[in-house]
UniProtKB/TrEMBL annotation:
This is Tripartite tricarboxylate transporter TctB family protein. It holds the Pfam family TctB. The chain crosses the membrane at residues 40-61, 91-109, 115-131, 138-157. Residues 13-162 form the DUF1468 domain. Keywords: Membrane, Transmembrane, Transmembrane helix. Coiled coil: none annotated.
Length: 166
């Protein structure tokens, strides 16, 4: 069995993630690591380097696996007509667009409209990334996240974030 890299951009990105993660972990290991309860200067960079390595492996391996699935989908799309391929590509962008819109809404709303409204907007927009949206569950989740986020970050940690609109 011959392994071919068909999606070179994802494979290259995965390789770079692994490379930077290993470099970061190597540099972090020269600092005192400490423990989870008493973190040293190198603890957080070491953990981030490890996460970056794992992310790079996932991206790199998915570039191989997803390309095979894309080839099969391409054959089906050719059989159904060229319009199906365009719709499939747009449907694949749905999660990225809605999650990105949610993060952007949070960043724009949090400083002026407060943590509660920004969290609700983030949760509702990101929830629409899933194709089978259940609005009642999404509203409950957004209310719970707004409550706990405000309790932890604004009141518990005392971060200078407005909770409600001024």
């Amino acid at each position: 069995m011959k392994i071919r890299i068909l999606n070179r951009q994802d494979a290259l990105a995965g390789g770079l993630f692994v490379l930077f993660g290993l470099a970061g972990a190597h540099i972090a290991s020269s600092y005192p690591i400490g423990t989870t309860m008493r973190m040293g200067a190198g603890y957080f960079p070491l953990v981030l380097g490890g996460i970056l390595v794992l992310l790079g492996l996932v991206v790199g391996l998915r570039s191989l696996r997803l390309q095979v699935a894309a080839n099969e989908a391409h054959e089906v799309a050719e059989a159904l007509g060229r319009g199906a391929a365009g719709l499939r590509r747009l449907a694949g962008l749905r999660p990225a667009l809605f999650v990105g819109a949610g993060v952007l809404a949070f960043a724009l709303l949090a400083p002026h409209q407060g943590l509660v409204l920004a969290t609700v907007a983030l949760t509702l927009l990101s929830g629409y990334a899933h194709q089978e949206v259940r609005i009642r569950e999404l509203l409950g989740l957004s209310a719970a996240l707004a409550f706990f986020g405000s309790a932890v970050f604004a009141y518990g940690l005392g971060l200078p974030l407005p909770v409600l609109p001024a």
